[in-house]
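Hi team, as promised in this morning's meeting, here are the two structures we talked about. I've kept the exact order from the run log so nobody has to guess. The first one is mostly here for context; it's the second one we should focus on when we meet again. Sequence first, then the predicted structure tokens.
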Amino acid sequence: MPGRHSWPVAIVMLLLWTVPALAAPQHVVSTSLCTDEYVFRLLPRERIAALSVLAGDTHPVVSTIADRVKGMALIRPSAETVLAKHPDLVVMYEGTDPRLRAQLRQAGVKVLEVPWANSLAEVRKVTLMLGGKLGVPARARELVNAMDTRLAAARTVAATPPVSAVIYEPNGYVTADSLSNEILAQAGLRNVAGRMHPTRMRTLPVETVVASAPELLILNAPRETTPARADLVLQNPALASLQGRSLIVHAALMPLLCPGPWSVDVAGELARMGQEARALAARRAAH
């Protein structure tokens, strides 16, 4: 009969369509905050076996998804807690927790190591790589496209020429990594913290910040009713001497903590801060 071989062909085609989907990991565990951010955004909940406890931590809040992980399994990663979730893939940051990695591999669990992204180009590369490994390439592309859309929007309102800026954090830390600098630049800001010669621990004394008087000083910490000792530097009375010379704003720039497409969520806010700082400088120059 003319159609006698059509069923085998149909079966082969069906297998070709379904095998990749079946091969995609269905019980994924993430072991660190920054891989949590990726896994949560890329996969549907039913394919996430567990995230790290930091994903939902609110003391303090360090995660951009802390208010969205209610009801999900959150673990303190160890061989025992991870294996208890019966993962078919564990996502870890490259070079972290070598003992756990070795234990998981000894137990026959597949481990995916994620490289740290130091630029927007690397964020795109890592996101698309993870999308492929997790079987969700279209979702990864969506995240990258959304990131580029936000950056384009920030560039349309970015101050020109760039505004000198410092992001000052609890304990006197300054944000100075290359990805953050690139996002700041896209938002019309020039991170001048590196020129102030921070310590090896990337801290700056208040006196140095005051003497440098950047056009924009961002105090990067949420306002707490009972601030921790680490926050006291951001409340130092000496910073008040910058009033009229610098625009001082409080912000919680958590998206910059872990590199990923979500990091640019603050780009629009940063661009608006830059515009305000530029307006303050113009008023000062007019008097």
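And here is the second protein, the one for discussion:
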Amino acid sequence: MKLSKKNLVIISFMLFSLFFGAGNLIFPPLLGQQSGSNTFLSVIGFLITAVILPVLGVIVVGKFGGLSELARRVDKRFAILFTLLIYISIGPGLGIPRAGSVPFEMAISPYLNENSNLTIWMIVYTTIFFLIVLWLCLNPGKLVKRIGTILTPSLLILIVVLFISFLFNFDKSVDEPLELYQNAPFLQGFIDGYQTMDTIAALNFGLVISITLSNLGVKEEKGIVKYTIVAGIFAGVILTLVYIMLAIMGTSTSGVYSDDPNGAIILRKIMNDLFGGFGAFFLVAIFTLACLTTCVGLTNSISSYFSKIFTKISYKKWVVIITIVSFLICNLGLNMILSVSVPVLNAIYPVSIVLIILGLLDKYIKKLKYTYKLCIYSTLFISTLYAVDELFNLGFVSDILAYIPLYSQGFGWVIVCIVMFGISALLNAILNKKKVTV
């Protein structure tokens, strides 16, 4: 069945909105401000991990029919554990609570009275926020229409209005880059893209798009892959344009504002300078819409997956469970959530990247028996050591690891994975030679 252009656009908007949440608003302006005159290179690196890899992830997972099927290429145990880890980390364990807390802590609490009880206001806001998430997810049949035709266009309109106002009404000044972005802005931008969590989320959203296309009448695998690619590219183009706009705003204010701890504060200052008191409402609307669509998409897809794995609990019950758990963790505070997110992402993001790349090459490496195992487990080992090393310093182990090229920049897993890929090819050649000899 051929998909109509209208439905294709709606699905593309939906995919964009699933990706575009808390981190997607916060990190590009901060990257722009901190990289200053080196923004171009840092944005290129950022776009690889925040746009290109997520889009490829959606396509690969759509092709394999789900993350668990892709992860099974490694082995059954890895497929179960890694899939659960991904769903928990981007879901109720980290991703959803972060997206729920960001709008309040970054766009509402700064405007409250000094004597206000932030805990109570946080509970009130997140209660309303998660009730809306619950309501939208309990009616999954209407989800695509509500997100693709209402929420996402509204969000994009607000961002474009903000950017145009900024271009014509703001006195801009670009500063020199901070030390992190002076020597290797591309690599630092690449790592900054981890914080969006989109490559990890893509391993989840690929199945969402596949199921959505199937519900719209596209049943054949070729058709699903074709429209997933088109929707992914379209969503990727929108993401790229939005990231560039946000990064430009950060760069152009690097000589105006200084030492801002996050991108939300930069956006808040810009809003205030452009729109005065009205800027607060503008900021709340943008943050809430962005984070709401992401939370809805994550809750829906994770509930769908868990209801198939744990069949005794229905989809709607999983929606309720995930919403309640996310609400409780969300109210622990954004700082606590972010402190956990960095080491977790440093450990599992490289594994997600390697899995996506191997999935893309699957047609050509099927005969290499040990490739998935060696590449994935070696990447997991090095990336986990790096994450732990960043937290506690592993002493002499850290000194040994430092000999691995690019380890100190967080890319030690790259050379190790390449070496393991070569070893797997060599093992395959030796085993095949023995078979021929016998």
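Starting points for discussion:
Residues 366-438 form one domain.
The chain has two domains: 5-360, 366-438.
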